[in-house]
Amino acid sequence: MHIKSALALAALLALPMAQAAMSKAELKTGMDRISEEYKTDKTACDQHSGNAHDICVESAKGKEKVAKAELTHNYSSSQADWNKLQVAKADAVYEVAKEKCDDKAGDAKDLCNKEAKTTHVKALADAKLSKRVTEARADAASDKRTANYKLAIEKCESLAGDAKASCTAAAKADMGKN
Q: Are 92 and 65 in contact (CB under 8 A)?
């Protein structure tokens, strides 16, 4: 059971995100479907007892949270929702790992929990780094556009009359400055 649930969760987390425009109605339908799947998955956990039950429930919760975050990101295509998806994935893996540690005792359990926490911290750091890289890319693109615009306007300065006006208008249009 432990291996099957871990593999299922890992497979879910590894799925590529399909970007497609969807309506609010489709978003709601998707959210409802995910909630129903969660209920089904959670009910299936009742066949287990003890910690196997707890692991199963955490896997179902994680699967639901990741699926909802992925659907939200697919709806919005925003960087903020992509970051939330990465955090949801990290949290889901962490929660399942913590439950699996409950099967151990003493130093082995302590080490297991510390490994789970370390993996979680690393995943959250990667999500934060990705956010910063994306923001830096956007800033760099903006700086490049500004530099290109200034250069184009400078080139137009050497012209006169209609040629200068036409050149300036073209530079503004190219850079979206109209």
A: yes
Q: What is the pLDDT of residues 36-51, one digit of tens each?
A: 999 999 999 999 999 9
What pTM was computed for the model?
0.66
CB of 58 closer than 8 Å to CB of 99 = yes
Please give the C-alpha separations between residue 66 and each of 22, 34, 136, 147, in angstroms, as whole numbers: 18, 10, 26, 40
Tokens of 69: 């975050």
58 vs 56: CA distance, rounded Å: 6
Dump pLDDT digits (tens) for 128-163: 887 777 777 888 888 888 888 898 999 999 999 999
Cα 96 to Cα 17, 68, 104, 123, 127, distances in angstroms: 22, 18, 14, 14, 19
Q: State residue 118's pLDDT score.
A: 94
C-alpha distances (whole Å) from 17 to each of 45, 86, 87 are 27, 12, 15
Residue 88 host element (H or E): helix 79-101
The amino acid occupying position 153 is I
In Å, how far from its chain's centre is CA 74?
10
